[in-house]
Specification:
This protein has 129 residues and is mainly α. Helix content is 42%, strand content 3%. The chain is elongated, with a radius of gyration of 23 Å.
């Protein structure tokens, strides 16, 4: 099982998909990296040679922000927004959408699945005895 950037890459998956297990690498970046090294997208990660794994590790760890570094950067950016009390920071504090989405009907999961709507007002008939 190849290990890149502190993450175990699954062996039985195509390398294009397996690289997405690393935080900060999606499908498009995965393809870009593989194209650069000239590795087939559909090759299984277990079939890679140690040389190819080393090339992958070197490119990913040196050129891109991934895993802990990226998480830390995102966390600091959110903390800055909260500290300066801007609109987006306040929305993050309250746990509401920060990019202008409607909240009356959507974002139920963000608001804790609050259901404020009432049925038709008609009460169910009592059960027969």
């Amino acid at each position: 099982m190849p290990r890149i950037a502190g993450v175990n890459i699954p062996e039985n998956k195509q390398i294009e998909i397996a690289l997405t297990y690393i935080y900060g690498i999606g499908r498009s970046l995965s393809r870009k990296i593989l194209r650069e090294i000239k590795i087939d997208f559909h090759a299984r990660s277990s079939k890679l040679t140690s040389e190819e794994v080393n090339q992958l590790r070197e490119i990913i760890e040196k050129r891109y922000k991934i895993e802990g570094t990226l998480r830390r950067e995102k966390m600091l950016a959110l903390k800055r927004l909260r500290d300066i009390s801007c609109w987006r920071g306040i929305r993050h504090i309250k746990g509401l959408p920060a990019r202008g989405q409607k909240t009356q009907t959507n974002t139920r999961t963000v608001r804790g699945n609050v259901r404020k709507t009432v049925g038709s007002g008609k009460k169910a008939a009592p059960a027969p005895k």
